[in-house]
Every structure is written in C-alpha cells, then in structure tokens.
Amino acid sequence: MRTRSARLLILLTLATTALHAQDLQPYSRRNTFSIFTEYSNTSSHILLGISQNRRLTALGLTYSRRLLHTRYADWNYNLELRPLNFIQEPTVAFRDSAGSVIAPNPIQRTCTSGTFKIPGNPGSGFPGYTYTQTCGTRWTYAGGLSPLGQRINIAPRHRLQPFVVSNAGFLAATRDIPVNNSSRFNFTFEFGAGLELFHDHRHSWSAEYRIHHISNAYTGTNNPGIDNQILKLTYSFGR
Predict the structure, then answer these.
(1) Do 97 and 130 meet the contact criterion of CB atoms below 8 Å apart?
(2) Regarding the domain delimited by 27-89+140-238, which CATH topology (the fold level of the hierarchy) does it fall under?
(3) What angle do CA 205, 141, 44 make, to 5 degrees?
(4) CB 191 within 8 A of CB 221
(5) Cα(155)–Cα(158) distance, rounded to whole angstroms?
(6) What is the pTM of this model?
(7) What does the pLDDT look like over 68-95, one tens digit per residue?
(8) What is the mean pLDDT of residues 120-148?
(9) Phi and psi of 11, rounded to 5°?
(10) CA-CA distance, 25 to 21, in Å (whole number)?
C-alpha cells in the first residue's frame, strides 16, 4: 500500500512539475509573420508635417526576427512590406465662366465651394472675371517598404505583453503627395506602442497606436509633409 502511495505521489509530482514548466514557457517566437491593417481618419501638425485633412489606410505584411530574448523583454527586428497604401486628399478645382478647369490642386486646410466674382479695374483695363470653386477629395495609391523596424516586447512570459515599436522606410505614389509639385517618392518614419495578446505560443493578436510621418526630405519643390495618428491591428503567427 505504501509502495502504491509513493508511486502515486511521484506521478503527481512529475505531472505538477511538467505543467509548471509548461506554464513558464515564454510566449516568444524566433521568426514571426504578420498581416496588418491600419487607419487614420485625418492628419494634423504633430511633429514635422503641416498638411491637414489627409486620411490614410493601409494593408501590409511584417516579418520579425528575434534578436535577443531575456526573462524581462524580447528585442525584435521588423521588416514591413506595404503593397497597399491609400491616402485621401482634399482637392479644390477652379473653373471659369465657361466651365473650363483653370487649376485643379490639393488644398492645405479648408475649402468653400461657391461662385466668386473678381471686380474689374477700368483704370488699368482689367476686365474682371467670375470663377467657380469646387471642393472634393481624391484617393492616391502608394506602395512601399519599411526595413528599419525595431520592436521590444515586455514580459515575454505573459500572454498579454506591452510593446514599443519604431520603423522607417519609403512610399512611392502614383502622383505627387501631399500636394502638387512635391514628390511621388516620400520617406516615412513612425513610432508607437501597443498590446499583444497570445492565443497560444505561436499565434497572437495585437493592437497599437502609432505616430506616422511622410515627407520627401526636400527632394521636391514643396515639402509640407503629413503627420497621422494611426490605429493598427495585427495578426501574427510563427515559432
């Protein structure tokens, strides 16, 4: 009887030890692949950009490689591929009295649609004219790559992990952004923080907040830049 009790005690001890060891296994992956979507409803002057009322949405992929693992934090390298970026810009079109477009341009701040009359000056012979101003929006496509990403996850032994992140790269658009006579090619950088929730040791969801900047670094005639506050949702898997 004592022998059976001793065996049972040993089995319970081994099972408890195994479960405890499993619980202590960190939620940390060496290689991670992710798909993300992000959205910003508008832009404003936060850091360097002065272009306002620019909406941004994107869909992309991320590869992460763990560089350092400790009991307290994971340090990862991030590479973000951004094949689908769309930027909505406010526009204004000026038309003469015949309805011909005088100048279509993205606008910086506000726009008021209407018909306006410029009075003439008989002394100078200026006849005056009437024009119509129409406000609208347009979407511009851009694709890019952000290869300079760094990410630090805190408390890798827990399912819910806070993290901080930064990245930098470029975007190439189908036309000048954020205004005409700026550049189709722009540089980007961003930084932020979020929370990652692990479903198991291989799969997780994360939500984060980022400050995102776009500008051409004065390689174009104009460089007003865009600053966005972005909400980002990511699904990740790996091992």
Answers:
(1) yes
(2) Porin (2.40.160)
(3) 75
(4) no
(5) 6
(6) 0.80
(7) 999 999 999 999 999 999 999 998 888 8
(8) 86
(9) -65, -40
(10) 6
